[in-house]
Design brief:
This protein is of the alpha+beta class. It is built from five helices and seven strands, in the order βαααβββαβαββ. Helix 1 packs across helix 3.
């Protein structure tokens, strides 16, 4: 069995084309809130001007970016400083090969060991079974269902709200 090694690093403005490629895939669009036909200029701007408290992590194989995870915190909100939110996507041709797990390991270490976050939260489409399995593997629990949360592929779809709490 060949085990793939992933390098995790911080996203940089020069990664805009790689991000556009990730979010050009039908599977990546299906599993996220992104729209089809992502703009390269928009990705350049997003990566060049990240909001305070955001951390963009990339999974790379050799020098090729194949996945991303955003961890967003609330530095301007004293009552939510203990919370982080995540969103992620893996390039279509790399889904199911371990990149999501590698990104989650890095993000949970950043949250626990460096940012002192107690709660990590996310939303995931209720029909995205691979992502739900991944999140459960990292200790996330389902807190509820938001009905008709997003419009995707011509219909409204539900999401689960999930959270992981750091052990004290």
């Amino acid at each position: 069995m060949n085990i793939q090694t992933f390098t995790i690093r911080r996203a940089e403005p020069s990664d805009a084309e790689a991000m556009q490629k990730i979010f050009s895939g039908p599977k990546a669009i299906w599993g996220t809130l992104q729209l089809p036909y992502p703009s390269l200029d928009r990705w350049r701007k997003r990566l060049a001007e990240p909001p305070d408290g955001s951390f963009g992590l990339l999974a790379c194989v050799e020098n090729e970016v194949i996945g991303q995870l955003g961890l967003f915190t609330f530095p301007q909100n004293p009552r939510r400083r203990h919370v982080g939110q995540i969103g992620m996507a893996i390039r279509d041709d790399w889904q199911g090969k371990g990149a999501g797990s590698a990104l989650m390991v890095a993000a949970m270490d950043l949250a626990d060991s460096w940012l002192n976050l107690f709660r990590i939260e996310l939303e995931v489409y209720t029909d995205n079974e691979p992502a739900i399995r991944l999140y459960k593997k990292f200790g996330f629990i389902t807190e509820g269902t938001l009905k008709s949360f997003a419009y995707r592929g011509g219909q409204y779809v539900d999401v689960y709200t999930m959270a992981r709490f750091r052990e004290k």
